[in-house]
Amino acid sequence: MVIKFDSYYIDKIQEKDAWKLCDFMIINQDRFKRYFPKTLEQNLTPTLSKLFAEKKVKKFNLKEEFLFTVKEKETDALVGLIYIKELDWTIKQGEFAYCIGYQFEGKSITSTAVKELSKYAFEVLGIETLQIIAHKDNTSSVKVALNNSFIWQKTLKEEFTPTGEKPLDMELYELYK
């Protein structure tokens, strides 16, 4: 399963992505430490990234969580990650989480990738409701939701606690099939 758009492509996580994943997380650790702390801490060394990739491939194959890589077509460089997680197959719901490397921010890559993966989630996975949970000050993440016609639903009180901070209220956006 590969989805191509512009100069990029989306693919499911693979074990061979471990080295690129480690490099990507280390280079962007200041960007990711607040909203992606768990993924970051699991990818601080090549060995940790290898274990992380193996675990995520298993979860993907078991349909427990879907992690996708976004890469440049020309260089095969890893530019972003997109999860479809918090899956509830009973109500056919999943949540997006995403991050992009600092040098690729502001190029609509994440918005386009979420658009393509929303189609995939609805048409292939059979999901009927997709969610994005973002902090109101994370304007880039909110923009991804709005660019993809996700509709604000409500504020989730103390929904997320960044490392070393007090709990934050988060905004819930949803998109329906």
In short:
By secondary structure, this protein is of the alpha+beta class.
SSE string, helix = H, strand = E? Answer: EEHHHHEEEHEHEE
Number of helices: 6
What is the class in the CATH system? Answer: Alpha Beta
Instruction: Supply Rg.
Output: 15 Å
Q: What's the overall average pLDDT, rounded?
A: 97
Per DSSP E runs of 2 or more residues, the count of β-strands stands at: 8
Determine the strand fraction and express it as a percent band: 25-35%
Q: Top keywords for this entry?
A:
single chain; 177 residues; alpha+beta; Aminopeptidase; eight-stranded mixed beta sheet
Task: Describe it.
- By secondary structure, the chain is of the alpha+beta class.
- It has a single domain (2-176), classed as Gcn5-related N-acetyltransferase (GNAT) (Aminopeptidase, 3-Layer(aba) Sandwich).
- 34% of the residues lie in helices and 34% in strands.
- The chain is built from six helices and eight strands; from the N terminus they run E-E-H-H-H-H-E-E-E-H-E-H-E-E.
- It has an eight-stranded mixed beta sheet, sandwiched between helices.
- Helix 1 crosses helix 4 (46-61).
- It is globular and about 40 Å long.
SSE diagram, text form:
Layout: E1 2-5, E2 8-12, H1 18-27, H2 29-32, H3 37-41, H4 46-61, E3 66-72, E4 78-88, E5 93-100, H5 109-125, E6 129-134, H6 139-147, E7 151-160, E8 168-176
Parallel strand pairs: 5-6
Antiparallel strand pairs: 1-2, 2-3, 3-4, 4-5, 6-8, 7-8
